């Protein structure tokens, strides 16, 4: 067998835009949204229900549709990173990465030698792939979240760390770290978010961020290539429109 391709990694390497959809908590959710053509499914293990016991089925559903399984974990821990990969995730999202050393730790946990020191075990992605540990690095994505003002201040150094597929700017925690909790739209916060994205793009690295229908075009014009979008606002908007059309308050 050949190793399944990582759709997001390949699109980003080609300079194309890739979109991850969030809000999916069950394999049936992934099956339902699979025909819509998203590049990946965001499996929420920091704030949501996804845990190692469930990842096998969640990532299998992604495999059916050729979507990259993107798992956010809750700690920058090498063991947690490679255990999540072992359970079948093709991409890892690590929160609150604020320094060059912390970015390097992500790489060490997420890549096999000689790049990193990921524990020598297969993944369910590697079943039947004889040379998995030799080629897995090529299809494994690492995404670090830039979500604190400390990360902004250390970003130039962090951007020198190789083997990170995207530096992803997360607005809500960024705002909180600046003393504007619940107000990501504050001008000072927006200036730092845009400044972070511009630094990432100008360095030649891949920038990512949370986007909505209303602002994704602006980010694309800036040069952002990776987006996470929640399905829940679309459901809410559709529900509101339906109720209005039905004359329901």
Kindly describe this structure.
The chain is of the alpha/beta class and 249 residues long. The protein has one domain: Phosphoenolpyruvate-binding domains (TIM Barrel, Alpha-Beta Barrel). Helices cover 42% and strands 15% of the residues. It is built from 12 helices and 8 strands. The chain has an 8-stranded parallel barrel with strand order 1-2-3-4-5-6-7-8, surrounded by 6 helices. α4 (78-86) links the parallel β3 and β4 (91-94). The model has no long low-confidence stretch (mean pLDDT 96).
Q: What is the gist of this entry?
A:
The chain is of the alpha/beta class and 249 residues long. The protein is built from twelve helices and eight strands. The protein has an eight-stranded parallel beta barrel with strand order 1-2-3-4-5-6-7-8, surrounded by six helices.
Major sheet size, sense and barrel closure? 8 strands, parallel, barrel
Tell me the CATH topology. Answer: TIM Barrel
Strand content: 15-25%
Distance between the termini: 55 Å
Going by CATH, the architecture would be: Alpha-Beta Barrel
Structural class: alpha/beta
One letter per element, helices H and strands E, the order comes to HEHEHEHEHHEHHEHHEHEH
Instruction: Tell me the radius of gyration.
Output: 18 Å
Model regions low in confidence, pLDDT < 50 over at least 5 residues: none
Proportion of residues in helical segments: 40-55%
Described by the principal axes of the CA atoms, the overall outline is globular
Total strands: 8
User: What is the averaged pLDDT score?
Assistant: 96
CATH superfamily: Phosphoenolpyruvate-binding domains
- Identify the strand order in the major beta sheet: 1-2-3-4-5-6-7-8
The number of helical runs is: 12
